Amino acid sequence: MAKKSILNKKSLIFLENYINNPSPTGFESEGQKMWLDYIKPYIDDYFVDTYGTVVGVVNPEAKYKVVIEAHADEISWFVHYITKEGFIYLRRNGGSDHQIAPSKRVNIHTKKGIVKAVFGWPAIHTRHGGEEKSPKLDNIFLDCGCTSKEEVEKLGVHVGCVITYEDEFMVLNNNFYVGRALDNRIGGFMIAEVARLLKDNKKRLPFGLYITNSVQEEVGLRGAQMITESIKPNVAIVTDVCHDTQTPMINKIKQGDLFAGKGPVLTYGPAVQNNLLDLLIDTAEGKKIPYQRAAASRATGTDTDAFAYSTGGVASALISLPLRYMHTTVESVHKDDVENVIKLIYEALLKIEDGHDFRYLK
């Protein structure tokens, strides 16, 4: 007998629309509006900060504050230089992978609307053996069908315009969600689903819950750094993605042994508060939620670091979702893992008490 999904039809429609909507770093507003519209029925209040981080609040009157957080931004490109012949060279906005770019279709976002373009690349017939060049930042370029710089500019394209890939959401073998920017809009989806479940199940939390969709993670955790100063939380449970290491060309000695489909990943590291981590592990084991473990050397590289080391220290932990092909247009996550991350956050919140003391020494 197939197990019953915790996701409903409305949830899955939102997921597809949310993943397909572009939300490049620094230009997240349209995606943030969509996310806020979805969670409004499940929250008591909300606020938006100066740079666009959106926070839905349950029990805003409570003094004890718990954050569940993901980041909303996706990697992208900026127009950097337009040649006199009308070709466009780029600068990264976040960790965009130059090697996947050739032959990709893109959207250039302008004040006049979307301008379609493609990453050009010389035909195989024109490349010869040892002379072949690999894609690099200084040789990949966009072609938007123009023959001069002036023609490009008439379309509304200028230096600083942001560029996103065109690829859209799909499902593989009824097991994997696939799309661009699952890193980390899938996190935004999961924390929104936690809010929905709390409302649907009529759970009343004894603290303020701050459901936080941060901007600008891909350029240095900047949105989280800003919003933690506004919220001043007591606890932060952050969700992001990590690498599924079972696909070819990945060194498990360096990257660890993590599987898509075998559960959320709980990280050990300096930024992770041990007592909060223990609560997550106890929750997973008590509720029979499968989980995996990972170790971070210095920093987790996620918004966990921004929350942990702010406002005198916030008890923080990281729940990661194993993901294949990070920073490509075919990022892939297992459906079971998505549901289990949602369940783990939901059940962990039900274990946290008002004024819960997570200090290292008690």
List the topology elements.
Elements: H1 9-20, H2 29-39, E1 45-48, E2 54-58, E3 65-71, E4 76-82, E5 87-93, E6 105-110, E7 113-120, E8 141-143, H3 149-154, E9 162-165, E10 170-172, E11 176-179, H4 182-200, E12 208-214, H5 222-231, E13 235-243, H6 252-255, E14 265-268, H7 274-286, E15 292-295, H8 303-308, E16 315-323, E17 331-334, H9 335-351
Helix pairs in contact: 1-4, 4-9, 7-9
Explain what the structure shows.
- Helix 1 runs antiparallel to helix 4, helix 4 crosses helix 9 and helix 7 (274-286) packs across helix 9 (335-351).
- The protein has two domains: 9-74 and 180-351, Aminopeptidase (3-Layer(aba) Sandwich); 76-165, Elongation Factor Tu (Ef-tu), domain 3.
- It starts with 8 loop residues before the first helix and ends in an 11-residue tail after the last helix.
- Strands 1-2-12-3-13-16-14-15 form an eight-stranded mixed β-sheet, with helices on both faces. Strands 4-5-8-7-6-9 form a six-stranded antiparallel β-barrel. It has a three-stranded antiparallel β-sheet with strand order 10-11-17.
- It contains nine helices and 17 strands.
- By secondary structure, the protein is α+β, with helices and mostly antiparallel strands.
- 44% of the residues are buried.
- The chain is globular, with a radius of gyration of 21 Å.
- Helices cover 27% and strands 26% of the residues.
